[in-house]
């Protein structure tokens, strides 16, 4: 495997965070794989968004065929290594394992998947090669999970795949966003390198629409795939938000993962505004990095949070607390944020999504020396608004479910820019 983009600089905060689910040893993997019942019509396969033949790869681990196990995984999902660490298996394959019905601990499918794919990468074994060239060229905009998996598939079928990636590092949120206790950026980049070795051309630091003209792309490629993900952190749009000490969650996580100059010195009380998975991730990361008090500020109650319950429970075990039923109305401070002025709110009706009504006289300030805003990310499809024939809805690309094609064009789209970021985090 060619080692591009690695090693990353030392001293990044993410290096202090250990795997929540460490790599199995050989005997652990053997013991766990031997527990599998290799079910006929296995419910775990049906629950996997990429339909990996789970009992088949587990059986191969049990019979010491690790190459075969890894091939079974990657044949279905070329990003099977990162998925083994980041997928919310508790609500997917593991959550559907038949052992749950018997009140027996379910098979740890993600950890077995990681064991097999880790073995493949560590032993530098290539399973796939580029297909016979077919003379067709495809431009891929965005080098995140969507763009990379598209490029891998095309390269294996003989297309010349060219990725244009805005950042200096490829990998998208797998490198910049995923919580380090699930996967470190170095692991994600190892997987990127495995894919690029299929002969994929990559141009980093290249923003399509700014550095590359969209009309030029249309004229020079047989097809174009858009995998640009989502954009910048959303804002609260309240007074005081531009003060020092107020940061977007995705921005902050990127610093934790990649910036060797970043530290949390002097931060002892952090507030995270939001109730989704990114809010939970950043809460837990801050606690594990030594911030003494980290609390969520969320406008509804605990049961209304969009975050996975298992993730929130894990954050609570790390010491997370929450202020529920609060709506931020101002960030207070003298140029440097010192807290959030909130009002208490309650739902107007029993409907989970009902509008919220302010409780009179409930205004109060919650002190903080770091305020993290985790209220979603902007949508980026507007960049391509001038292309004839493309279809958009609510800032995302509308694609045909069968073909991935956007409108009657040679444009295709996938990943967060097409699903609005919903699938991966809530499927
Ligand atoms: C903080 C955070 C944590 C997450 N953790 C998990 C998790 O644990 N498990 C899970 O299943 N999912 C998780 N997700 C969701 C998951 O990361 C995304 O669903 C996934 O990365 C989407 O892949 P993508 O390729 O569509 O987009 P991205 O990963 O966002 O990649 C898009 C790429 O396109 C590039 N780009 C954008 N515009 C341009 C342009 N004009 N020209 C060139 N390049 C461009 C970007 O720089 C980026 O590299 C998380 C998301 C966030 C925000
Ligand atoms: S449901 Fe559980 S026991 Fe059955 S095949 Fe899947 S992992 Fe094995």
Structure description:
The chain folds into three domains: 13-122, Fumarate Reductase Iron-sulfur Protein, Chain B, domain 2, CATH 1.10.1060; 137-231 and 379-426, FAD/NAD(P)-binding domain, CATH 3.50.50.60; 246-373, FAD/NAD(P)-binding domain (3-Layer(bba) Sandwich). The protein is globular, with a radius of gyration of 23 Å. A five-stranded parallel beta sheet has the order 3-2-1-4-16, with helices on both faces. A five-stranded parallel beta sheet has the order 5-13-6-7-8. 32% of the residues lie in helices and 17% in strands. The two termini are 32 Å apart. It contains 16 helices and 16 strands. The mean pLDDT is 96. With 427 residues, it is α/β, with parallel strands linked by helices. The structure holds flavin-adenine dinucleotide (FAD) and iron/sulfur cluster (SF4).
Question: Could you name the key traits of this structure?
Answer:
5-stranded parallel β-sheet; FAD/NAD(P)-binding domain; binds iron/sulfur cluster; alpha/beta
Strand content: 15-25%
CATH fold topology of the largest domain:
FAD/NAD(P)-binding domain
**Average pLDDT figure:** 96
> Strands across the major sheet, in which order?
3-2-1-4-16
Give the helix proportion (percent range). 25-40%
Indicate the CATH architecture of the largest domain: 3-Layer(bba) Sandwich
Low-confidence stretches: none
Q: Evaluate the radius of gyration.
A: 23 Å
- Which small molecules are bound? flavin-adenine dinucleotide, iron/sulfur cluster
For the termini, the CA-CA separation is 32 Å
The beta-strand count equals: 16
Oligomeric grouping of the chains? single chain
How does the major sheet shape up? 5 strands, parallel
What is the number of independent domains? 3
Classified in CATH, the superfamily of the largest domain is FAD/NAD(P)-binding domain
